[in-house]
Amino acid sequence: MKKITLAICAALASTTVSADTILGFDATLGAWKPAYSGAVGVDSFNVDEFALAEDNATFIQAALEHPIPLIPNILVAHSKIETSGSAMLSDSVTFADETFLIGSDVTADMNLTHTDATLYYEILDNWVNLDLGVTARQYSGELSATSDFQSENIELSGVLPMVYGVARFDLPFTGWSIIAQGNGTSYNGDSHTDLSAKIRWDFVPALDFAIEAGYRAMSLDVKELDALQSDLEIKGPYLGLNLHL
């Protein structure tokens, strides 16, 4: 009888483990407060002159993991990044094909909204977690510059292939994790990085909810991605809510 009971318990435990590892889902929704620095345009106009607003940017990402060997897991992410500002030009500036003359009062609206599709493999899965993969980043943004007599609109709609990686260190028995996540690429003189460092606290373990806070830094140094020419840095703190099943 004891053997039968032990066998049933082992079977139930095995079933529970299998159910937990069939599919995994991880999603984060948050707000990011970035500051902008660097240059845009043919003449590398300093964006500090525009005094771009540090409005909150929103982001969401969701990952689905499965136990099937050789087939990668998938992560989809979307960041909505919009800002605007104005400047009185102290020198002539060219955006795309339009040159704005000295003394022009120029208003700039910048949209760097993008969507990521990432395929990745889980290399380590214990108290140290490591994922590696590749990302296709689709930009659907623009830079528009307008004065009393001129206007220019530069679309940003190219796709960038990027290397993806994330490392998570779980602090045992605490509910706290330290996470580093990033994408990066460099090709034909263009480079783009997007790096995040964050701390996550599983504050409602029974419901699989966690809160995370961190710092995100993007650099966008491009001359050949669509019509936009930029050497930008966008960085700041963020706060997010995480669900892990």
TrEMBL record:
- What InterPro entries does the database record attribute to this sequence? OMP_w_GlyGly
Signal peptide span? 1-19
The entry's keywords:
Signal
Domain of life per record: Bacteria
Per its record, how is this protein called by name? Outer membrane protein
Instruction: Show the taxonomic lineage.
Output: Bacteria, Pseudomonadati, Pseudomonadota, Gammaproteobacteria, Cellvibrionales
